[in-house]
Structures are given as structure tokens and as C-alpha cells.
Specification:
The protein folds into 2 domains: 103 residues, Rossmann fold (3-Layer(aba) Sandwich), CATH 3.40.50; 165 residues, Hnrnp arginine n-methyltransferase1. The chain has 318 residues and is α/β, with parallel strands linked by helices. Helix content is 26%, strand content 30%. The chain starts with 12 loop residues before the first helix and ends in a 5-residue tail after the last strand. 41% of the residues are buried. It binds S-adenosylmethionine.
């Protein structure tokens, strides 16, 4: 007996416009990345093109010979926009699940995959989907946008609304890292935290590169208690890297407080270009009082549903 395929609604035209308006640096970075790899002979797959199909249409406007744009959601508006922009003859919109895309769809020089939920526990399936597309539809010279998805994590005290010294360091470090990614420059000469005198200025720096909706509240208003550690890095040139996550991540406690929240940072990159940085927070269980020198172990092994199991190893202190 065969079962009907249930297609998800995809992102609505309103949702898609909001995504573009909310994160202008994202679409500018994508435009820059796409213009560096798309030319007149290029064949492009836009995996998860969304109801407006904007990246597919931009790819065709950059001269791509053929663009296949796939989404489970409705694509009427995308087709109308392709027509309006004079590229309907080169963009083929398909309402289909990417997981079942027929092998006859072809080989692609560029695979666009802006399909993430922006948090690791929900993203693994999408990473594996992208890795499957890389294995089935890429050739050795194909470019992927993004080509790297990188997660780091740090522990916070959500009750402390006064930014702590480590939180200000983190904010400074994040702002410098964001400026490096946006400019393509390195900034080691100014990486060191300026000085406590600058704290009130640093406090005004955004936590992230762009305003975010509430569900990505991230580190705002929380006190950083631990080191920020790498958690996972997926590179589509090496699809094996999308096969899973480490079972635990070990953080060094750097400030005293009640560790109750983990904040994940997702960086979507193309080479040294940062397309999008997003912070998302998740409670840890049980919340624990910690001191510098302690070690916090987050367990992501299977059951990290609503809260991440936390183990603290206390340092030997008198
Ligand atoms: C956040 S939207 C991004 C749209 C567009 N890529 C952009 O960046 O402007 C992600 C889209 O991926 C689509 N998507 C996710 N998983 C998919 C799958 N398995 N097959 C087809 N489309 C999928 C969703 O329906 C949604 O419209």
C-alpha cells in the first residue's frame, strides 16, 4: 500500500519577506557569495527556495544557464516573480520534497541550501538532507552556499541582567569576530578587550549582527559564566561531517553564578564570508551554582528535548 506524501506548507510569502527584511546582511552576503561562483555556464540547485524563490531568481539574474528551485511549499508567487524579472525560461520551480528528488534532476555547479532552523537540535536533519544532496547532485568542483555550518556553545546565568566582565569580553569578541567576517579582514590587533573604562560602550554593542525575533533571544541580558566552545562544524565538501554531533561538550567555568542556560551560536559561512550568525538559548537541567575552575559538561546524547542535561565537576577548592 502506498501512502500519500504530505508536503509541509513551506515559508509563506509574508514569512519570506520578513526573513529578507529582518536580516539585510544575510541577503547581501548571499548576493556576494553567489556572484563569486555563478556565471553564464553555471547550473544551480536552490534547495528549499521558499515561496518567493528569491535566491533562484537572483541566480538566474546573475546569468546562470539553468536553475532548479525546489520547495515543499506553494511556488505560485515565485513563478510570477521569475516572469516579472525576465528569467522564467531559465528557472524551473518544483514543488517537491528534496529528500526524494529524482537522480535525473542533473548535476549542479552550485547548490544553495539556506534551509536551517538556526539551532543544532533541530538542524541535524537539514544538515543530513544537504549532505545527501551534496552526495547525489554535486560534482568535484561544485560550490555550496553555505559551505560551512558551525556551532559553538557557552553557559549563562539568565537571572543576572547586569552584563558581567566575561559577558562584556564575549560581546566585544563577538563584535570583532562579526566585523572580521563582514569585512574579510583580520583584526587581531584590536582583539584584546579594550579596558574596563570602555565597559559602558561595549555594553551597547549588539549581541548579534542583526535584530532577531524573540525565539532567538540568545545571550541578551544574561551573564556569561563559561568559555565558548566549538560544538559541531559541517562542511559540504565533506558530507561525512553531517553525520552526527558529539555526545557531550565540555565548558570551563570562568565566572561565578547559577548556570541555567546554554546559548548556541550558529554561523552559516561561505569561505571566510559570514552569511548569518544566530544565537538561540535553551535551558540546562538541573541549574547549578558554579565557580571559576569548575567544569560544566552538557550532554547532547539523544534526549536533549526541552532542557540539556548538565553535570558540574567542581574544582578542588577550600
Ligand atoms: C527559511 S526558508 C528559506 C528560503 C530561501 N532558501 C531563502 O533563503 O530565501 C527554508 C525553506 O526550506 C524549505 N524546505 C525545508 N526542508 C525541505 C525539504 N525537505 N524539501 C523541500 N523544501 C524544504 C521550507 O519549506 C522553506 O520554505
Amino acid at each position: 500500500m502506498t501512502h500519500p506524501v504530505v508536503l509541509s506548507a513551506g515559508i509563506s510569502p509574508l514569512g519570506h519577506i520578513m526573513l529578507l527584511a529582518r536580516a539585510p546582511e544575510r541577503i547581501l552576503a548571499l548576493r556576494l557569495a553567489m556572484s563569486s561562483v555563478i556565471g553564464p555556464e553555471t547550473v544551480v540547485l536552490d534547495a528549499g527556495c521558499g515561496s518567493l524563490g528569491v535566491l533562484a531568481i537572483m541566480a538566474a539574474r546573475l546569468g546562470a544557464r539553468r536553475v532548479v528551485a525546489v520547495d515543499t511549499g506553494e511556488l505560485h508567487a515565485a513563478r510570477a516573480l521569475a516572469e516579472e524579472n525576465g528569467v522564467a525560461d531559465r528557472v524551473e520551480f518544483r514543488q517537491h520534497d528534496l529528500a526524494d528528488l529524482p537522480g535525473t534532476t542533473g548535476n549542479f555547479d552550485v547548490i544553495l541550501g539556506m534551509i536551517y532552523h538556526n539551532e543544532p537540535r533541530r538542524d541535524l536533519a537539514r544538515q543530513q538532507l544537504m549532505a545527501g544532496l551534496a552526495t547525489r547532485f554535486a560534482h568535484p568542483g561544485s560550490a555550496f552556499i553555505p559551505d560551512t555550518v558551525r556551532y559553538t556553545v557557552a553557559g549563562y546565568d539568565s537571572a543576572d541582567s547586569q552584563p558581567s566582565e566575561p559577558a562584556l569580553h564575549d560581546r566585544w569578541d563577538s563584535a570583532v569576530g562579526g566585523a572580521e567576517a563582514l569585512t574579510g579582514l583580520t583584526m587581531a590587533a584590536i582583539r584584546e578587550f579594550p579596558s574596563a573604562d570602555y565597559a559602558s560602550v561595549v555594553e551597547q554593542l549588539p549581541q548579534s549582527l542583526s535584530p532577531r525575533p524573540a525565539r532567538f533571544a540568545g545571550a541578551d541580558g544574561r551573564a556569561l559564566l563559561t568559555s565558548r566552545e566549538p560544538f559541531a562544524e559541517v562542511r559540504y565538501a565533506d558530507p561525512e561531517t553531517a553525520s552526527g554531533y558529539p555526545a557531550t561538550v565540555v565548558l570551563s567555568v570562568t565566572a561565578p553564578g547559577r548556570l541555567d542556560t546554554a546559548v548556541w551560536r550558529q554561523d552559516l559561512k561561505f569561505g571566510d564570508l559570514l552569511i548569518r550568525r544566530t544565537d538561540t538559548s535553551q535551558p540546562v537541567t538541573p541549574p547549578c551554582d558554579v565557580q571559576p575552575g569548575d567544569t560544566a559538561i552538557l550532554s547532547t546524547d539523544g534526549g536533549w528535548g526541552d532542557a540539556i542535561p548538565l553535570i558540574i565537576r567542581h574544582s578542588d577548592r577550600a
